Amino acid sequence: MTRSLRERLAAAPITWGVCEVPGWGYQLSPDKVLADMAALGFTHTEFGPVGFLPTDVHELAAVLRRHGLSLLGGFVAVVLHDPDRFESEMERVASVVGQMASAGGMWFISCPVFDHDDWQRPGLDDVQWNCVFDGLAAIDDLTAQAGMSHAFHPHVDSLIQDDIETRTVLEHTDTQIVLDTAHLTLGGTDPVALVRSHSDRIGLVHLKDVDAAVADRLRSGEIGLMRAVQQGLFPPLGQGVVPLTEIIRSLEQSRPDLWYVLEQDAALSGPGADDMERLRSGVVQSLRFVQDSDFAC
Predict the structure, then answer these.
(1) Has this prediction a pTM greater than 0.90?
(2) What total number of domains does the chain contain?
(3) Residues near 280 by beta carbon (within 8 Å), at least 6 away in sequence
(4) Does residue 112 sit in helix, strand or coil?
(5) Is the separation of the CB atoms in 264 and 244 below 8 Å?
(6) CA of residue 52 relative to chain centroid, distance
(7) Which domain holds residue 268?
(8) 143: nearest Cα among 118, 111, 173, 175
(9) Residues with Cβ < 8 Å from 32, sequence gap 6 or more?
(10) Which CATH number do you get for residue 190?
(11) 217-252 pLDDT, tens per residue?
């Protein structure tokens, strides 16, 4: 029997402000984040930044079990364009894949970046692009050997951000894609059109919306990504400009077993109660959107 969309909706630590981007604000503890997820009815979580959850296999299983959660997988920034770093980066990826697989994770989500500590966007030459393609294929193999799946994630400030870059990777690799409804929109990709043209390449979906006014300030360079997030770049689902109902209806028609992740990127300035209540309110409103919407075709 096909599970409902709500039953296929996981949570992500970044919705609670926990992120691998350098300098990304105040970071909550795993127990605080996972307890809140469980209280809101989630059964699955993403991994969060490498090191957020325990790296020891037994400790990782224990913390997930304590909160009644299973691991869906996780987002990992990877450096693939530099041939001199290929071997060491694949060793790092293999280690993280092993950690996720040991906890029952299904999805390894890669995000090619310039450097783990410096998300700049220099233009890549053909040799560097070919290294990216080869790296994604290598991760496909590593994850398959571990019984997991792999999808790449177009993302603001990463090396795969805009529509040309996204479609270039789709054309030159067999790697599946994470349909992040907001980051694709911000990069100039129409997620509705991508679902229609590449539904067979979509591995899983990150659901988030976009505030048009804040997005314009981000695109113009007036503010950076973290500041934009703090100013409401990603509002609760259904309160922005992303045509989420149309996207989900199309996906549910063609791919009714897909997993979704409620991922409303947040950045905290501190542990204040007001910020925590704002984050939780956004999750509750987004869950209400999912539960109250009619996604039947």
Answers:
(1) yes
(2) 1
(3) 36, 40
(4) strand
(5) no
(6) 15
(7) 6-290
(8) 175
(9) 16
(10) 3.20.20.150
(11) 999 999 998 889 989 999 999 999 999 999 999 999
